[in-house]
Amino acid sequence: MNAQAVEHVDHDDHHHGPAKGWMRWLTTTNHKDIGSLYLWFSLIMFFIGGIMALVIRAELFQPGLQLVDPGFFNQMTTMHALVMIFLALMPAFVGLANWMIPIMIGAPDMALPRMNNWSFWILPFASIMLLSTLFVDGGAPAGGWTMYPPLVLQTGAAFPMLIFAVHLLGISSIMGSINIIATIMNMRAPGMTYMKMPLFVWTWFITAYLLIATMPVLAGAVTMLLTDKYFATSFFSAAGGGDPVMFQHIFWFFGHPEVYILILPAFGIVSQIIPTFARKQLFGYSSMVYATASIAFLSFIVWAHHMFTVGLPVSAELFFMFATMLIAVPTGVKVFNWVSTMWKGSMTFETPMLFSIGFVIMFTIGGFSGLMLALTPVDFQYHDTYFVVAHFHYVLVPGAIFSVMAAAYYWLPKWTGHMYDEKLGKFHFWMSTIFVNILFFPQHFVGLAGMPRRIPDYAVQFADFNAISSIGAFGFGLSQLLFAYIMIKAVRSGKKATDQVWDGAEGLEWTLSSPPPYHSFSTQPIVK
Amino acid sequence: MKRSCIAGGLLAALLTPLIAHADWEVNMTQGVTDLSNEIYGLHMAAFWVCVVIGIVVFGAMIYSIIYHRKDKNHKPATFHESTTVEIIWTVLPVIILISLAIPAAQALVKIEDSSNADMTIKVTGYQWKWQYEYAEDDISFFSSLAASSREASALGSEIDLDTVDNYLLEVDNPVVIPVGKKVRFLFTSNDVIHAWWVPDLAVKKDAIPGYINDMWAKVNVAGTYRGQCAELCGKDHGFMPITVIAKEEDEYKAWVAEQQAAKAALAASADKVWEMSDLMAQGKKVYDTNCAACHGATGAGIPGVFPAMTGSPITTGDIGPHIDIILNGKSGTAMQAFGTQLSDADIAAVVTYERNGLGNSVGDMAQPTDIKALRK
What we know:
Pfam family, one (chain B): COX2
Subcellular location (chain A): Cell membrane; Membrane
CATH topology of the largest domain in chain B: Immunoglobulin-like
Distance between the termini of chain B: 81 Å
Oligomer: heterodimer
Membrane topology (chain B): Multi-pass membrane protein
Strand order of the largest sheet of chain B: 3-2-1-5-8
Shape of chain A: globular
Largest sheet of chain B: 5 strands, mixed
Protein name (chain B): Cytochrome c oxidase subunit 2
Number of helices of chain B: 11
Radius of gyration of chain A: 23 Å
Enzyme class (chain B): translocase
Number of domains of chain B: 3
Strand content of chain B: 15-25%
Largest interface: A-B, 99 and 108 residues
């Protein structure tokens, strides 16, 4: 069947091949080209957001202000979050979806290829608009990525740019999601029933619904900010009869599902990789699907746990505490299933597997602190401290970002036809893992000891752990240069990869050549 | 085998500091109220639950990593499903969670019951200071970062931070409360959202414009307890600390009497005519505490965000609009109405200072009576 596919492409080459030169990338409607664009874009943004993080950690290396003034520090914390969430992590997952979903379900391409092009090409413009705020009067947004009014209304010329950038990013995400849902619903190969879909496809299917449900909510919230600032409305202004807390409710109704938008595809990736290297089928496939769906559902009814200190009624605090604690159940099921998949397998530890195991352990550590944060009375002490910073960085960095790296190592041989340098890959894993823990683990301690988040300077008793954390940050940042080097090197050259690539791998993507033909599956495979 | 040793060693290295230094520097404070102790207990219970689950889950993983590997010729098993275990590991966590949720809910109900308080203090957040108003004793004052910390924290300051008392946690006017009394705090804000947090009291509540939130504390031990603003509130969010001094009942009463005497003295001197040099000296103090955060210690401001004082049309033009903007603020900007925050004398002093210091030399001055006349 492979041979057939290749032959077919050759035959139609004169009007189905890629355009030549840079126009190929501008006009492409090919899911693999667009996937690559997303991934490169995300890698660049990962470094830009990382530089901002290093400015933050450099200032926090010692107490006192040494490098930047507090206003610029706040711009860095705000922009670091916006860049990492909207420009690095989300595009990385969309890039993986573009590359992998069609070839995992046996389709030739995405269902809506032209819209696919558009949803990518909005991103560079939105990100230029967002990043250029650093150079306007008053500087970049400094009110936090959560954009709470009234503070965010004090933003200078950057304010409308921030709002429109968020609108554009939302449009891009919604189009991407529609495309993913349309592809999964309509383009599965014969025999590929829903309950036979690979978990990466399943988790993205559910994620896409979360995006469609929540992105318009965010767009609405920021539009109300815009009219409050320029058109004399008072949605969030108490003086005009509005309610500043209402913004927080609306924002977190988007924001909490957003958290799962950033982690569900990661669950999918890890659920693909662990069975491959354990040489054993994923344990509890259907319970994994149900757990993902449960987490997605629960994500809509826990938003106010971000707001335990705003003065909610006791009944609301109790409801949101119980609902939040419930999330631990399906999340626990996932972790238990991964461990059971490894149990009595025949494991090898190539780089993707190392990153996946790192993911399971460190994501679980982030999950533990999440469970602690769910307890409302205790949250009164944790809220807005470095304990929270440590918590969400554990789930996002050695969680979500590690999963993206695992995916890159796992599928790169398929994408490029070249093996990456295994030795360097493992070195990259160990450097990342050691430094990410030096970076974030001490933040639990300073948070518990009373250090608030988003401060540029701190009392001297927090000095030691902050210095350690900053050392970890620079180590982690530098280790990622290695990642870029390994990726670029593997794209350009490297040992030829087989079609199967990993001996324990299962799924349609491994039946295609490495790299796959231009129109992935021109003939639909039959899934038994 | 070597690799698994590294992994195991790493995990151990991660967990040891937690066990080795179980003092306040790595852990939550137990605090000085019954509820802060209860919260600490809940925190530790949740922590140990996580540790035990972690040992079981990671233990199984590590065992599997060591023994179920291809280079040990371990043949993969074929099982991939078991409804029984799925049910067990769904139900067991639910039971554990319920056992945590019950005491948490009980504590929460106690925390949120601020009825029958012995006294009430209203706390108002400002960019970037706190105002405390004692409802029963008619005392009201502002509390800002201590001058020593402000100076030492300036960008490029050479001051050794270890020589500064309680760097960033010291204020000019601490809030004083009696020991053993149920003190109810009411929280609101004059501008953006702040959060009042004192870890030892286990009180953290947002101060939100248009809202009045409440929280209470009954401190068991006399002492000084420090905290900080915990909600991002702009440039100087990191520089609006909270200092609470809990005093024995009689000392507290003495403090109240002292405050009221000072207030009476201030009222008596309201119509006094000030010398230029006194106005300038007082004006600098008022400026550094209230204005320098935005307009800069030298009056340079921050271009595009906060206007400069030096050479500004307001500070060098007619004195009327100058006094007016300080009294009433400027709507739509971060400029607050200081008429409600500062006395006539302080406003007169700061107006005079801004016109004749900070690189300006207009030559005129304002007297407290001028301010009084202009108050709306």
